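Suppose you are handed a protein chain with no further information: no name, no annotation, nothing but its sequence. What can you learn? This example shows the usual starting point.
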Amino acid sequence: MSSSDLQADPRRWKALAFIALAQLMVVLDATIVNIALPSAQADLGFSDTTRQWVITAYALAFGGLLLFGGRISDLWGRRRTFITGLVGFALASAVGGAAASTSMLIGARALQGLFGALLAPAALSLLTVMFTEAKERAKAFGIYGAVAGGGGAIGLILGGVLTEYLNWRWTFFINVPFAVIAVAGAILVITEPVGSRNRNKLDIPGVLLVSTGLVSLVYGFTKASEDGWTSGTTIGLFIAAAVLLAAFVLVESKVNAPLLPLRVVLDRNRGGAYLSLGLAIIGMFGLFLFLTYYMQKVLDYTPVITGVAFLPMVAGMITGSTQIGARLMNRVQARYLMGPGFLVAAAGMLILTQIKVDSSYWLILPGLILMGLGMGTAFMPAMSLATFRVRPQDAGVASAMVNTSQQVGGAIGTALLSTVATSATTAYVKAHAGPGVSPKLLQAQAAVHGFSTAIWWSFGILLIAAAIAATLLNGGGKANHVVASADGEVADIPVMAH
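A reasonable first move is to predict its three-dimensional structure. Written in C-alpha cells, the prediction is:
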C-alpha cells in the first residue's frame, strides 16, 4: 500500500458524489433558465431588453465574486463555505421560483450567483485537497469535468421537461432537493485535511477592485449587444474595466496577503489553462444559445426535443472526459490533450456553420458529437492544470480562477456572439429584402445566416484556444511527479510509491 493511500480520506469517493451534485446544480443553472425564459416572460410580462438580465444577473454576480468566494473558502474552511453556499443557493432558488415580479426574479438570480460564487470554488478545492494519489485524482477530476461540461446540456433537457410538463417556476424549485441532498452528504461524509487552511487576512481592496472590474467588463459586453460597440456607455464600461483590473494587479503585487497571489496566474501552465479554457467557453456558450434558438424557432422542435437533441454532445463530453482525458492525463503532457481537444471541438463547429433553414438533424449530430468529445478531452487536464503545483493555502483561489474563466467566458460569449448574430441577421435582411420575397422565409433565412456567422466566430475562437494551449502549456503528464520545491509550491500530484 502506498503512503498516499494511508493518508487518503476513506470517504473521499462518497464525498465526490455530493461535490459533483453541487457542481451539477450550479452548472445547470447557467442553462436551465434559458429554456424557461419565454414562459417566464409571458407570465411576468417583462420586455426583451429585460429578458437578458435574467441570464446576466446570475453571470455578473457569479463571475464578479468568484475570487472572493475562493479566498473565503481558503480562510474560513472549504467544508463550511461549501455548506453555506448550498443553503444560500437553495433559498435564492426558492425565491426565484416564487417570484411575483420581474425585479424579484432578477434579484433571486443575482443571489444565486452570489452563493454559487461561494459554492463552486469550495467544491473544486475540496477535490484538490481530498484526492492526493495520481490515478485516483485523474479519475475524480474526470467525473467532475464531465459534470462541469455536460451540466449545461443537461440543464437544457431538464429545463425543457419542467417547462413543458409543469411550469417555468420548477426550473428554480428543482435546486432545493438537490441542495438538501448535497448538504446532508457534506455534513455526513466530507472532512477537510488538517493544515490546508490559509490564515491570512482578507484583502478588501482586492475584492472590491476585481469584483467591480469583472462586472464592468461583462456589463460592457452586455451593453454592446444592446446599444452597439461605439456607444458611449459601452466604451466607458470597457475603459472602467481596464482601469479597475489594472489597479487590481497593482494592488495584488504590493499587499502582504493578496486576494489573488500573482504567482497563481503567472505560472505559464496555470495562466495558459485559464486563458485557453476561458476562450473555449466563449465559443461553446455561443453554440448552446444559437442552436437552442435554431432548433426551436427554425426547425420547430419542442423544448423537450431540443434538450434531447443535445444528448449526443453530453455523451461525447463524458466519453472525452472519463475515457480519453482521465486515462491519458498522467501519461502525456496537457498540451497534447488540450490542443487537439480544442481542434476536434472546432471541427464540430465547422460542420455546424453549414446549417440551413431546412437542415436535417443528421447534419447537426456529427457536429455535436465532435464538440462534446473535444471539449470533454480538454476540460479534464485544464481542471487539473489549474491547481498544478499550487500551494495548499492557495487551492481555493486557484480553483476559483477556473470558475472565473468559465463564468466570465460564458457571459462574454453570450453577449459578444449575440451581437455578431444580430448584426449579420440585420445585414442579410437589408441585402435580400425585395418584391416577391416571402417575409416569413426571409426572416428564417436571415436568422440562420446570423447563427452560422456567430458559429464561424466560435470556430475561430476555438482555434485560438488550441494555439494557446499548444504553445503555453508544458506541464501535466509525467511532469506531475515532482517533489515539493523550496519556495513552498507543491506538486499537483504527489510522487507515487512504486
